[in-house]
Write a structure and sequence with these properties.
Blueprint (H helix, E strand, L loop, with lengths): L5 H9 L4 E9 L5 E5 L5 E3 L2 E5 L2 E4 L12 E7 L5 E2 L2 E2 H6 L7 E9 L8 E17 L2 E8 L30 H4 L1 E6 L6 E4 L12 E4 L8 E7 L3 E4 L12 E5 L6 H6 L21
Parallel strand pairs: 2-4
Antiparallel strand pairs: 1-2, 1-9, 3-4, 5-6, 6-11, 7-8, 9-10, 10-11, 12-13, 12-17, 13-16, 14-15, 14-17, 15-16
């Protein structure tokens, strides 16, 4: 059973008429947050404002015991005025802007549409795991519950040459902020590559990450494929082509080798690879 906050419980117990609506919170891969109201008006709840967004249809919410992954099918219908960072929503989705986004669905209850909601109840939370059919002004998404994180190979610890940690994760122990470098876009750009005024070591940011901090891609993160001293090439295209002056922050990547761990990050004490274990076909 889910507990309702005090004002909401009082409203439901009063026997009075009430209104209710879905409240959507989307956190993009770079940390930017978008909030949409499922009603015909913008709503306020829990100190947040849920803007009037696109029309969103969803499947029923199922709650399951055990480790089975629950999914929620979502169909978004957008018009020209539905934007994320100034980019029309459907093109933003087409260009992978919602890939890996964290989705939270709350159900809000209130006395009327003009007043702040009395309270909310969490209905579903997870991340976007699939982008389905995109046609015209509509897009279909699949959101999977957090149990999806358990769909990993077991056992988690293997004997392999490369480090088992991902750079900046809890096992690695490094702070991404300590290695962050901020800059601004300069020169001609495409959705897959952009120049900057930075001067960095070529290749140092391969397998790293860029997070845009302003412009049409604000809050969007992408993996870096390669870099020169001042330009970066991405693995996936951005939702919008960066323009001169757009801010970004880049983080160097790690190929999980012992050499990279020692020379670039000085973090050999946390290296969790076994490069000196001979392969099984080696005979002594």
């Amino acid at each position: 059973m889910k507990a309702a906050p005090g004002p909401l419980a009082a409203l439901l117990d009063s026997g009075e008429d009430f209104v209710m609506a879905d409240l959507w919170t989307l956190t993009l891969s770079g940390g930017s947050v978008v909030r949409w109201s499922g009603a015909d008006v913008a709503l306020s709840a829990n100190g947040n404002v849920y803007a009037l967004g696109p029309a969103i249809e969803r499947g029923s919410v199922s709650e399951k015991r055990g480790l089975e992954v629950a999914t929620l099918e979502v169909r978004i219908s957008a018009n020209a005025g539905d934007l994320i960072n100034g980019v029309p929503l459907i093109p933003f989705i087409t260009r992978h802007g919602l890939d890996g986004a964290v989705v939270r669905l709350d159900r809000g209850f209130g006395t009327d549409w003009a007043s702040p909601l009395s309270g909310t109840i969490l209905r579903f939370a997870g991340k976007v795991t699939a982008i389905g059919e995109i046609s015209g002004s509509t897009a279909k998404l699949t959101v999977s519950s957090w149990a999806i994180l358990l769909n990993v190979n077991m056992p988690p610890n293997l004997y392999q040459a490369g480090c088992l940690h991902a750079v900046y994760d809890a096992g690695c122990g490094l702070s991404a902020a300590a290695f962050a470098v901020s800059g601004a876009v300069s020169g001609a750009s495409t959705a897959l590559a952009f120049g900057s005024g930075l001067s960095v070591a070529a290749g140092d940011y391969a397998q790293g990450r860029v997070v845009f901090t302003s412009g049409a891609n604000n809050g969007v993160a992408r993996a870096i494929k390669s870099n020169t001293a001042s330009a970066f090439t991405l693995i996936q295209p951005l939702p919008a082509v960066p323009v001169v002056g757009d801010g970004f922050t880049v983080y160097p990547g790690c190929d999980r080798t012992m050499g990279r761990c020692a020379t670039r990050f000085n973090n050999l004490g946390r290296f969790k690879g076994t490069p000196f274990v001979p392969p099984p076909e080696t005979s002594l």
